[in-house]
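Can anyone check this?
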Amino acid sequence: MTDLPPLADLLVIGGLTIDGFGDGTSAPGGSVLHAGRAAAVAGLRTIVVTVAGPEPVAARGLAELDAVTELHVTDAESTIRYRHRDGADGRRLWLEADTSPIRLPADAYGRLLTAAILFAPVAGELPTAVLSTWEDSWVRGAILQGWLRRARVGEPVEAIPPSDLPDDLKAALGSLDVLVASREDLAAAAETPVAQIDALRRSIGERPVIVVTDGAEGVWIDTAYRLPRHLPAPWRVGGVPTVGAGDAFAALFVASRSREGDGARRNAATNAMRAVAEMLEARRA
């Protein structure tokens, strides 16, 4: 009899990025890196499936993930690369390079056993069909940021509303348990979190729990049978970079496996926000 591998607390799937900044520096990034970091700090057994090229900056990010997670990498000719540019209308992202689609291990379903899964693409690297691979995982969640943008190499990233997503992707996302997006991610749909949730519901249906993160204001949680509920952040953390905060929240919330019960979900969201605040406080050092 073949022994099954231990059950992971969280499986994260998404592409690594190289993020370039106005001062000429660059760093590894992507939702998969921020989510993997947060899960590791929380002591969760985490599996990461990603795609990356051979660049030294990407190698640094992979090394960090390899040290704290079980890492599976699709090799590509290049890593997704974004440039952060400041202009008169604020900071914008430009896509400078894309990558190959993520290829799952042939025996992924039978070997990468997980209690919770977080899909976290950033630039079209995750085939829609992958969203149905682990249909019997206890909780399946997704960070919507990478889908709610139009990104072409050499052009600025443009936000798109959920109504613009392909029908097969809407159906796949609508079959998940949790969807997480920031207020900025949904800016093309509506201005306020409540209106944004309504727009997202019209596109993906009633099944998923929807969480809209609202920066220092906390989060909004919506289930299809009640009005969205606002949960304030435990405390505000100012004067530090907040990159990756939403990804960290999504990882911890989905890994909590709070599939049933509003009280359990509220507790999970509050605990995740508290962990993110502590992460931001640690950046002061």
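Reply from J.R.: I decoded it. The CA atoms of residues 234 and 244 lie 18 Å apart.
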